[in-house]
Amino acid sequence: MAEFSTSVKEMGDISIINLKGYLDAHTAPTLENNFTQLIGNNKFKIVVNFEDLAYISSAGLGVFMAYIENIRENNGDIKLANMSDKVFNIFDLLGFPLLYEIYKHEDEAIKKFSGS
Amino acid sequence: MSVGKKNNVDELQVKSKTENLSEIRDFVSENAQKAGIPTTMVENIILAVDEACTNIIKHAYKLSPLGEIIIKIDYDKEKFIITIIDYGKSFEPDQVPQPDLRKYYREHRVGGLGMYLMKSLMDDVTYTSIPGKYNKVLLRKNIRSG
């Protein structure tokens, strides 16, 4: 079975989700739960760190689309960071860079939220 | 399993469960590596097959875990072909529009992305449906460019 796990850490009002392993139709609900919980706790400033993500399919990409509107309506955002070229290429192929801010490093995404 | 002198064939049959996607990916990966395909191309083929099987699990079998998915691989020096058969609800790919991500974003629609990825990553994607009997999707990747 595909191995996938997430961990969430808080930095002030910013939440950082770290992804690890394989994000596919089987494992996507794990990430959905993270977003549901954060939104439930009124945490709308979210950075997703892809550094340890080995694989993503459209089921995984769909998770980001499912929550982004609600999050932006609450003055938040999902900012993406630390993607490997392999993972970025899939996001790019589907036109995600038009709709999401994608940063090389997590720090840049955090700074954007901090407004500095 | 290698059969014949010219071509290499292999087959995997699994139930229609998303937890089997990793086994499907490993199966494709092993064969694609045996075929001597470059890593990036192997990754693209794996993703295309994952998308095809995810569509079958979600749409043909509507998430019922009892369906059968048969994945056949057939390759030679020129091409790597994956044929995926299911016995679920037939699928009409012409009804799947080219995705407009902004529209999807507004409508919270995420289906259709998989189809777009498959067509982008492979050289040919052909659906054949015999309603009430089986559905077949053929994915072809040309190994040699030109």
Unreliable parts of chain A: none
| Share of helix of chain B, binned | 25-40%
Using the CA coordinates, give the radius of gyration of chain B: 15 Å
Helix content of chain A: 40-55%
The number of distinct structural domains of chain B comes to 1
Let me know the CATH homologous superfamily of chain A: STAS domain
Radius of gyration of chain A: 13 Å
Tell me, rounded to a whole number, the average pLDDT of chain A. Answer: 95
Structure, explained:
The complex is a heterodimer of chains A (116) and B (146). Chain A has a single domain, classed as STAS domain (Transcription Regulator spoIIAA). In chain A, strands 1-2-3-4-5 form a five-stranded mixed beta sheet, sandwiched between helices. Chain A has 116 residues and is of the alpha/beta class. In chain A, helix 2 links the parallel strand 3 (45-56) and strand 4 (77-81). Chain A has helices spanning 28-40, 58-73, 85-93, 106-114; strands spanning 4-11, 14-23, 45-56, 77-81, 102-103. The model of chain B is unreliable at 1-5 (pLDDT under 50). The interface between A and B is medium-sized, with 24 and 29 residues.
List strands and helices in order, with pairings.
The complex is a heterodimer of chains A (116) and B (146).
Chain A: E1 4-11, E2 14-23, H1 28-40, E3 45-56, H2 58-73, E4 77-81, H3 85-93, E5 102-103, H4 106-114
Parallel strand pairs in A: 2-3, 3-4, 4-5
Antiparallel strand pairs in A: 1-2
Chain B: E1 8-15, H1 21-34, H2 39-60, E2 68-75, E3 79-86, H3 101-107, H4 113-121, E4 124-130, E5 134-142
Antiparallel strand pairs in B: 1-2, 2-3, 3-5, 4-5
Task: Describe the structure concisely for a colleague.
The complex is a heterodimer of chains A (116) and B (146). Chain A has 116 residues and is an alpha/beta fold.
